[in-house]
Write a structure and sequence with these properties.
The chain is mainly β. It is built from four helices and 26 strands. The protein is elongated, with a radius of gyration of 23 Å.
């Protein structure tokens, strides 16, 4: 068991970008997690009345999962395309790179969100900072106002990240309507459900707005395991919401990295690296598994055993064909399998 894996970091103990009475932002980018490519992750906590100020990302799409709370999200996409919608626990939203948006806690409890970006080092701009870059005269001309109208508005190019709302939230009557940016992933009838686990799938097949990100909400019970597999053209980054698991990854140099995962941990697997996940505690695990493709591909060990003849497999393993196990014919991988054998000891 690796004492410290290059594939894993904790998001709960990552350096805070912001930490105040309004909430907190902790992140893992390639600066803190060098293995990351095309993906990074944040944990955003908003107290009641707190707002992630209007902002945009210059080089990355955003995919967010709500763990708890009630929120209002506003997105200004392009020209006159604008919408506001509510988000609750188990729901998600997607924002394109460059689109102006805000996230506001409109409930009376703490809100927690996991935010993933389609770049290992996302670049942010805030609306406040963008206004701070322009002179009073330029802003006055923009709004058909005298320059003096802006004299009392404090401006700079920095961003406070989190701000506090005065009074009650202004929530449009239409905020609960269906919206292309929003997806109720946990409300979905699980496309994959077996006796020992399930997967709810936020991918382009079910959510057309997705472009270069997707997510599986994966639950596996104590008696289950995610079979060994790899994603041919897809990197994987997972966030552990609940439970305890063990993971093994094969690196190209032949080394096997095996480690334990617990709540708040983030793991990253480069494209096409074989890996598996198994439950090692006495409770169900819940992983938010993000991918850098709108529809991730998958090759599993079980189906791989049906692709080649027994003679080819025996030759590959360097054994007589008679010593090869009787592998079941599997045209479609099950993804989640039961554990017919005792779990290997946890070291």
């Amino acid at each position: 068991m690796a004492a410290q894996s290059r594939h894993v970091r904790s998001l709960l103990t990552a350096d805070a970008v912001h930490d105040s009475a309004l909430g907190s932002i902790r992140r893992l980018t390639a600066d803190e997690f060098p293995l990351l490519r095309r993906m990074s992750i944040k944990r955003l906590v908003l107290e009641p009345g707190s707002i992630r100020e209007p902002h945009w990302h210059a080089n990355a799409n955003e995919l967010t999962y709500c763990i708890s709370g009630s929120l209002l999200v506003t997105v200004f996409d392009n020209a006159d395309e604008f919408s506001s919608f509510t988000i609750d626990a188990g729901q998600m939203f997607h924002v394109d790179s460059g689109a102006l948006h805000h996230i506001e806690n409109i409930g009376d409890t703490t809100a927690e969100l996991i935010v993933v970006f389609g770049h290992e080092r996302p670049e942010d701009f805030s609306l406040r900072g963008a206004f701070g870059a322009m002179t009073d005269a330029v802003l006055g001309n923009t709004y058909d106002l005298p320059a003096s109208a802006w004299a009392q508005v404090p401006r700079d190019t920095s961003s406070p990240l989190l701000v506090k709302r005065e009074g009650e939230a202004s929530v449009p009557d239409t905020a609960g309507w269906a919206n292309r940016h929003k997806f109720d992933v946990e409300g979905q009838l699980a496309p994959l459900k077996v006796a020992v686990g399930s997967a709810h799938l936020a991918r382009q097949q079910y959510w057309p707005a997705l472009k270069n990100l997707s997510m599986y909400s994966l639950r596996i019970e104590e008696e289950g395991m995610r079979e060994p597999h790899w994603h041919p053209e897809t990197a994987e980054m997972g966030y552990v919401h609940a439970g305890k698991a063990r993971m093994s990854i094969l690196d190209p140099d032949g080394t096997v990295d095996t480690y334990l995962l617990g709540p708040g941990d983030v793991y990253f697997i480069p494209r096409a690296y074989p890996h598996q996940i198994e439950v090692v505690g006495d409770e169900e695990i819940h992983f938010l598994v993000f991918f850098d493709q709108p529809t991730p591909g998958d090759i599993g060990y079980r189906a791989s055993g049906s692709v080649f003849s027994r003679e080819v497999l025996a030759a590959s393993f360097g054994i007589p064909e008679s010593q090869l196990p009787q592998l079941p014919f599997t045209p479609i991988d099950p993804l989640i399998v039961g554990k017919a054998n005792p779990i290997d000891p946890v070291e």
